[in-house]
Each structure stands twice: as structure tokens, then as C-alpha cells.
Amino acid sequence: MRRKFLVALGGAVLALSLAACSGEGAGSGGDTSEEKPGDLTIGVSMPTQTSERWIADGKAVKEKLEAKGYKVDLQYAGDDIPTQSQQVDQMITQGADVLVIAAIDGTALSGQLQAAADAKIPVIAYDRLIRGSKNVDFYVSFDNYKVGVAQGTGLLVGLGLLNKDGSKGTAKGPFNIELFAGSLDDNNTQYFFGGAMDTLKPFIDAGTLKVKSRQTTAEQVATLRWQQETAQKRMEDLLTSSYNDGSRVDGVLSPYDGISRGIITALQNAGYGKAGKKLPAVTGQDAEIASIKLINDGVQTCTVFKDTRLLAEQAVNASEAFLQDKQPQANDTQTYNNGVKVVPSYLLPIATVYKDDIKTALIDSGYWTAEEVAAGQAKN
After folding, report:
1. Residue 8, C-beta contacts closer than 8 angstroms, at least 6 positions apart
2. What is 79-131 written as a DSSP string?
3. What Å distances lie between residue 188 and 158, 192, 314, CA to CA?
């Protein structure tokens, strides 16, 4: 989660001159606590609009900040690293007071972060930790290792090896499974995959689960930029190369709903879900409305729900703290080492959503309406 508040141009120039004299790092700039919200600008950099999730994040952060009177410069980078770098550069030169950044590549913004530090602009990493820089002031996210554990557990529940309450299920196996991970340039990928594999490994070691393709490392199963089409192509290749002997896929670990939909499309094109050929258990993440319909229809097994409304609130809280010359409240000061420093973090809880959880977790909470779930499409 990246929330950075932008400094007014005059303030930025002043901060740059002070930085040249003092050499202090990000988050130690001039006091904006006496300024009115309408005089302050927050730069919000989101990675892409191809994912429903990031559109919702950007909208939520912008609306919550504007409701408090702040100016917001929200930019989407189209999953293009040079574009995001240019957009953040522009936010800095135009006088951002705080920056909130969800990075495409967690290692590609070191130059921009140094410029922000020189200008005394606090940087909030939004959901994706920015790596390799000392100039990351705060991190807002979910407990990403637990997301992976939830995904691994969801696969076991979908296969019948576990019940939802964690007790032992009635299924015996062995089951053939395949593994998918997210994009390796996203720091969260290792947490998701690590949590999932720690959960699945005892079953793999016991022979209850078999990865027929033998592709079991994050590098082998990664999905660049989390793209649905890339996942679909890999699933098609796996079916051709590893399941051309008449064997079937029983379960697929998927880290994200878009990837899940690509996997499911490949499986359906290969005849799964038709003529008595049961679809495998497939996990997911982000509670995207198209996948919630698939879960409701019994096609996808589950998704991990991360309430972006709460994430946006924490980004706003952290931004306001910096603008008031205070440190944001952290609930984790040990876990997220970006290779240079441990970044103080605020981590939010997650929830696994199966079909019978949709009403209570998503509809009753106002995240999606019953009509949207039925249609598989958001109203706006």
C-alpha cells in the first residue's frame, strides 16, 4: 500500500533547499500541521486499471482524502514501469506533500524515492512493499503471509482434505494439483507463495498431493504482471504437457482472481466442467465481482477477501499523521524488511470467502450488492 502526500510547489522548493543543507531523509521535512487540507496535495500512484481491485483502491483512497478536504493527484501507470516512474517524478516536481505508491516493480523507484526524500516528502507504500530503499516511511497492507496460508487452506478445503473449521476432511487423495504464483517483481508474491506452500508441503511430502508438472518453485510458477492471459496460456501448456495421458487436475493454487479466471477458462476449454468432468478446486484473491459470481455458481472454490475500504482508511490515517508532523500508528515493526530497513507497517486482517460466506462477508457489509453478485459485474 503506497500513500504519499504531495507538497505544494513553493513548499517543495523550500524543502529541497533545506534538504541540501540538512541531508535529512524522507518524512523529516517542514511542518504542514498548521496548513489547511485544501492547501495540501496527496499524490496517489496506482499500478494499473486492468484490475478491478486497483480501480477500487484508487477510487477509495481518492474519495476518502477528498472527503477530508485534501487535493488528490491520482495516476494509473498502465502496468508500465517507466510510466509510473514518470508520474511519480511529476508528482514530486508539482509539489506533492505526501506520496502513496502501489509500485508495479518494488525495486524500480529508488531514484524517485530519493528525490522525494530530498524534498522532504513522506512516502507510504500501499499494499506492495517498495524494496531496496531507505526512503520508504510507512507501509499499509494486509498480513500477506496469512493470505498465502488462507489460499493453501482453501485448496485443501476444496479438495475435501480439510473442513472449513480446520478439522480433517473425509477425502483421502492422492490428488493432482498445479501451482501458480504472482509476479516476481511484486514483493507480496513471495509472502503469498510462502504461506501457501508452508500449508501444502506436509500434504505434498505425504504423497496426498502430487504436483504432476513438478513445477514447484516461485520462479517456475510465477505469472508476470499477474496477467489473466498469461495464466491461461500456462494452464493450457500444463494440460498439454503433463495431463495428456488421461489423468486429471484436481486442484489449482491461484494467488489472484484474475489469474483464477484464466486458469478456469483453460480448464473449461479442455472439457472440465462438462460431461461429468468435474472442475478442479481453484483458489483466488481480492473478491473481484466476476470471480464472486463464479464462486456463487460453484465454478471457483474461494477467494481471499481484503477489504480495500479499510486499506484506504489506513492510507488516509498515515497520510494525515505525516501532514501533522507525527508518526503513523504501526502494528508491525518487525516483519517487512525491504532489504535496507524494516519499514513500520499497519497490517489489516483478511477473510476467506466460500460460496456460503458471500452474503455475510460481501453483501451484508456493502462491498457488493446481491444484484452485482448475480450479474458478475459492478454497477459502476
Report:
1. 39, 40, 41, 95, 97
2. T-HHHHHHHHHHHHHTT-EEEEE--SSTTS-HHHHHHHHHTT--EEEESSPPP
3. 24, 6, 18
Residue type, 102: A
pTM given for the model = 0.87
CB contact at 8 A, 50 and 18: no
For 183, other C-beta atoms within 10 Å of its C-beta total: 22
**What would the DSSP string read from start to end of 153-208?**
HHHHHHHTSB-TTS-B-S----EEEEE----TTSTHHHHHHHHHHHHHHHHHHTTS
Place of cell 476518502: 64
Q: pLDDT of 342-377, one tens digit each? A: 999 999 999 999 999 999 999 999 999 999 999 999
- The CA distance from 12 to 297, in Å, is 53
Residue 139 cell numbers, joined: 507501509
Q: What is the dihedral of CA 8, 13, 18, 21, to 10 degrees?
A: 160
Angle between helices 289-296 and 257-269 (to 10 degrees): 50
209-266 per-position pLDDT tens digit:
999 999 999 999 999 999 999 999 999 999 999 999 999 999 999 999 999 999 999 9
Locate 304 and state its grid cell.
Answer: 481471499
Task: Please check the confidence at residue 339 and state whether its pLDDT lies above 80.
Answer: yes
SS3 category, 33:
coil
| Residues facing residue 138 across a β-bridge | 124
Q: Distance between CA 222 and CA 92 in Å, rounded?
A: 33
pLDDT tens-digit map of 109-138: 999 999 999 999 999 999 999 999 999 999
